[in-house]
């Protein structure tokens, strides 16, 4: 029985795995939604939710006491060890943490997409729950006519109005009348 093997290795060394999870967490907090493999999405979810909780708890501290200010700075620096981008760190503390202040965990959602064409890896979207971008109203699809190899487009008779005669396609060179063909002089 195997004990104590927690987490996914993701086919990387320890430092490479940490760098990958840092980058995925930064992208998630910056864009609110990322597309990655299912394994990376599940591992990133485990990685980023404690960071959001730490930011949320730092904002929940009330008062203007010096000790509270020190605790807020300490929380920002602790999260800064993982999120290197200052703009993303600011976004976490000004936008994300206040929005999830009343949510008791579960800040992210993994939506499975299917398999990737190249290597058949299972793909998923990892998104922040309160930024429901995928649940927005879908855009109406406008169907465009597909390009064809035919040079002349002939409309189907059923789609034409009753009083319009169907168009006549130009004859191909094979179907040309013999009187239209001119003879070339013999080459010497």
Word description of this protein:
- This protein has four helices and three strands, in the order αβαααββ.
- Strand 2 (108-115) and strand 3 (122-128) form a beta hairpin.
- With 188 residues, it is of the alpha+beta class.
- It has a domain at 14-128: Ribosomal protein L17 (50s Ribosomal Protein L17, Chain: A), CATH 3.90.1030.
List its traits:
188 residues, 50s Ribosomal Protein L17, Chain: A, 3 strands, elongated
Map the helices and strands:
Elements: H1 14-31, E1 33-37, H2 38-60, H3 66-80, H4 86-99, E2 108-115, E3 122-128
Antiparallel strand pairs: 1-3, 2-3
Helix pairs in contact: 1-2, 2-3, 2-4
Concise description?
By secondary structure, this protein is an alpha+beta fold. It is built from four helices and three strands.
